[in-house]
Design the sequence.
């Protein structure tokens, strides 16, 4: 493997950590990344395409900026030039992110007061709720009682074995978000399941809690299905999750 | 005569007469008596197993022209491309249209898809102007009027206003009433206009329009609150403004199209508070094919919060055609676990209300009278 190929894989690995906030999945797995060009000086150009021309500018900006940050963290990278393709604000976003401008700097006059940070947090929280629901429902499915659920500790959850093939992924994705949103470093003795505000769950409130989580999921699933559908239609490829082109021989 | 029988036999669609594919604008179907032959005329009657007719008002259809000749700029192209994406993403494979047809399908095709090949008895035709994207507009009231004038018993023509037009918006409402006698409007709060990227139902200028609507008897306000297409951030589809308008105008009905998705819980919350808020199923309905479990959960939420009297069917034609949507909806049953958890059911009565009776109530359609009217027109045409 030559150096360029190694660097390419490093860039890809960094991009794996960048997620589409609405779909809660990485931009690489979603097939957004179309091309990566690396020059000898360490400048990286990332070409990518979103499901539609109309994807909200704030989401597009967030992902573009996250890509710049993630790839820019590699020691050999001198500059990151994101190249968002076929988007109504492609030019403004590419130019803005490349010079490190904020979303508000670029779109100031046309946006309401939501900052990207607030947006980022909002979607982290949604993702936490969605991932938690999946784990709770998987446990309820195998007859866990509300009382046992609320008593479960982070360490115990980590050791729990379930038959369902998706269990390890569900758990890992939930624990990752539980850790990210915890106010203090998470220990094995901390409760596995808490509310958005970090309060422990109580058995009597579990049904209502699940209702809240379901509402979040129904909305996210709607967006997710639409975005995935639009993306697939745009790529005219039914199997859009394997879009990333294999490296040249 | 061909009979399409669903696997579960929940519903039978009867096609009488032959040559389904050569249907013309003069074909009239829907003879009351099943089995009666009408030469080459065809009839489709949606019936339940027990023979009960289902009267269908499609609450959301469009007659658009998005052909390249009408596109004003790249936005016009990208807009219809995105619609085509919706069409491709959620339609059954055998229902997919070629792109050129999707861009511009015309009156004949529309009539056939809704009433000849499709199960609709009536349809509410909604405008979407998009004058910034399309030279003659995407689907204006004036354009829609052409098909309505041709088939007045089949369509309910809705108008629109843009409060950013100020006085002209009020004049336009008067015109809509005088020229077309509209009873409803479709409002698109995310539409661009010059440097504006949208407006809210609670804006003072919008309130002046609603006051006039009350006076003119334009009672049904359909509002597009659904998936994001144009806005820079999501606020243009925030449903909170519906709450204000619905409270302040209790004599108007607010039909939230696309049931506020992706803000279903906000929408449900508002609908619980406001008795004059309804949910339109356009777009949401299409999930019934590719994601039936999702559709079940969503419709169960609506049945739980709003109840079966405040949900309206809409195909969003030509993004989707009503034939497969209605077939699948009639055959659909809520899974047992969802039924139990939510304590609701999608019964036959609920289906009938959603498919037509709720819209009939809002628009003052006497269903029995209308059926007779359509039948008489059909017999008359058959005799000609």
Sequence:
């Amino acid at each position: 493997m030559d150096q360029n190929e190694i660097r390419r894989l490093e860039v890809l690995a960094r991009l794996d950590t960048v997620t589409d906030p609405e779909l809660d999945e990485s931009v690489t797995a979603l097939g957004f990344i179309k091309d990566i060009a690396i020059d000898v000086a360490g400048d990286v150009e990332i070409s990518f395409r979103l499901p539609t021309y109309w994807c909200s500018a704030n989401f597009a900006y967030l992902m573009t900026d996250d890509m710049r940050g993630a790839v820019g963290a590699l020691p050999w990278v001198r500059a990151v030039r994101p190249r968002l393709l076929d988007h109504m604000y492609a030019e403004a976003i590419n130019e803005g992110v490349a010079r490190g401008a904020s979303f508000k700097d670029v779109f100031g006059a046309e946006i309401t007061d939501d900052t990207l940070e607030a947006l980022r947090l909002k979607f982290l929280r949604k993702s936490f709720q969605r991932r938690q629901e999946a784990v709770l429902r998987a446990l309820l499915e195998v007859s866990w009682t509300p009382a046992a659920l609320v008593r479960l500790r982070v360490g115990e959850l980590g050791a729990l074995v379930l038959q369902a093939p998706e269990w390890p992924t569900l758990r890992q994705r939930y624990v990752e978000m539980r850790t990210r949103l915890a106010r203090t470093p998470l220990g094995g003795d901390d409760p596995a399941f808490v509310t958005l505000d970090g309060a422990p769950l109580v058995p009597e409130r579990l049904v209502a809690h699940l209702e809240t989580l379901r509402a979040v999921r129904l909305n996210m699933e709607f967006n997710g299905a639409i975005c995935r559908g639009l993306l697939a239609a745009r790529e005219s490829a039914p199997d859009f999750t394997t879009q990333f082109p294999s490296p040249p021989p | 005569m061909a009979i399409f029988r669903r696997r579960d036999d929940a519903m039978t669609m009867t096609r009488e007469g032959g040559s389904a594919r050569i249907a013309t604008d003069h074909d009239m179907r829907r003879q009351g008596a099943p089995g009666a032959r009408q030469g080459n005329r065809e009839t489709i009657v949606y019936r339940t197993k027990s023979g009960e007719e289902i009267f269908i008002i499609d609450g959301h259809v469009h007659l658009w022209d998005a052909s390249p000749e009408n596109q004003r700029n790249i936005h016009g192209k990208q807009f219809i491309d995105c619609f085509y994406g919706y069409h491709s993403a959620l339609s059954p494979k055998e229902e997919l249209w070629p792109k050129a047809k999707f861009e511009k399908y015309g009156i004949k095709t529309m009539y056939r898809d809704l009433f000849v090949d499709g199960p609709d008895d009536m349809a509410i035709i909604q405008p979407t102007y998009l004058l910034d994207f399309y030279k003659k507009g995407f689907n204006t009231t004036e354009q829609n009027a052409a098909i309505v004038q041709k088939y007045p018993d089949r369509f309910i023509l809705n108008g629109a206003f843009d409060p950013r037009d100020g006085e002209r918006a009020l004049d336009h409402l008067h015109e809509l009433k005088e020229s077309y006698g509209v009873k409803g409007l479709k409002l698109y709060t995310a539409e661009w206009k010059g440097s504006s990227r949208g407006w809210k139902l609670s804006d003072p200028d919008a309130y002046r329009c609603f006051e006039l609507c009350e006076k003119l008897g334009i009672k049904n306000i359909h509002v597009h609150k659904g998936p994001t297409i144009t806005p820079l951030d999501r606020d243009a589809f925030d449903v909170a403004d519906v709450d204000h308008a619905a409270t302040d105008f209790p004599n108007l009905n607010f039909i939230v199209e696309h049931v506020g998705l992706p803000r279903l819980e906000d929408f449900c919350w508002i609908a619980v508070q406001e008795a004059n808020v309804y949910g339109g199923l356009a777009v949401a309905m299409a999930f019934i094919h590719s994601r039936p479990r999702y559709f079940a959960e969503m419709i169960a939420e609506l049945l739980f919060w709003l109840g079966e009297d405040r949900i309206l069917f809409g195909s969003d034609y030509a993004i989707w055609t009503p034939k497969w949507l209605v077939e699948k909806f009639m055959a659909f049953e809520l899974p047992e676990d969802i039924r139990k958890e939510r304590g609701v059911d999608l019964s036959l009565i609920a289906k009938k209300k959603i498919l037509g009776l709720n819209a009939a109530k809002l628009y003052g359609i006497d269903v029995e009278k209308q059926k007779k009217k359509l039948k008489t027109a059909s017999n008359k045409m058959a005799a000609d």
